[in-house]
Amino acid sequence: MTNSLLVPEQIAEVTAKLVGADLNLAALVHRDLEAEFGSGSGSTVKVRVPGAVPSRTRGIYDVSTPLASDEINEESISVTLSEHCYSNVALSEGDLDLDLGNFASRVLLPQATAVVKRVEREVAAAMTSTPETKLTYDPSNPATVFTAIRRQLRDNGVPAGVKLTAAVGSNVYADLMDGPTGSAGTTFDADGRVRGFDVVESTRLGADEIVAFVKEAFALVVRAPQVPAGAPYGASVSEGGFALRHLRAYDTSTAVDRSLVSSFVGVSAMPLAIDNENGTVTLKPHAGAVRVITTPTD
What we know:
hypothetical protein PF0899 fold, 4 helices, 6-stranded mixed beta sheet, 4-stranded mixed beta sheet
C-alpha cells in the first residue's frame, strides 16, 4: 500500500489520537476542543460558567400564592488562543512510498510528540503561575500537607465530592513512595490516593513543588486551523482528545513533500465558580488550585 491510499482525514485522525494518548498534565484540566472553527471568530474563546438559580418554598397547603419565576444568567470566561503550535517536516523522495503504518510511526508520531510537549509546557506554565500557599511540609510524613491543602481548597469554596488532583515534582513523589505505613501512619489511602487526591508525578514542575487542583481550575482551549483553500491535501479533526490540522504539500523548489501538523492553543488559570445558592455565582481567582513549595525555608 503506497502513500496514494492515505486520505487526509485518516492521517489527521491518527495524528490526533497519537497526541491525545500522550497528554499528561493537559489531560487533567478542562479541555475545550473544536475542529476547524469558523473564520472571523477571533482569537478569544468564551468558556461557559454554569448558571445558578435559587430554590424557593411555599406552604404545602398554599393554593393561591403564585410561583416565583427566576432566570438563569450564565457567565463566561475568556481564554485567548495565543500559540500556533506546529511541527513542519520535509519528506525526501525516499520517504514518499510509505504505507499508513510506516507513515504513522516515522512521521506522525514524532510530529505528534512535538505538539504534545509544547502543549504540556503551556499547561505546566499555567499551573506554576498559581500563587504560592505557605504550608508546613514534613518529608518524613508527606501526606500531612495534602490534608492541609484539602482544607484550603474547601475553605476556598471547592465543594465536597469534586475530584481532587495533585501534580507533584520528583522529590515530593519520592517522599510519598517512601512515606510511613502501618502503625506509624499511612501515606496512601486504601484506594491508592493521598488524602483523597489523585497524585500525578510531573517533571515539568519543580522537584519540590505541588500543584493541587480541581479540573476546572485550568482551561486548555484547542482549535484546529482551517484547511487553506489552496492546500492540495489536508484535514482538520477533533479525535482522541485533541483537535488539529494536518496538511501535506509538495515543494517544487526543493523536491520534497512537507507534512505540517498544527493547532491553535490557549491555556489559562480559571477562577472558581462558587454558587452562592441565591441565584448568583461568584468567580474567585485561583481558588480552585493550591500551589506549595515544599523546600524548607529558614
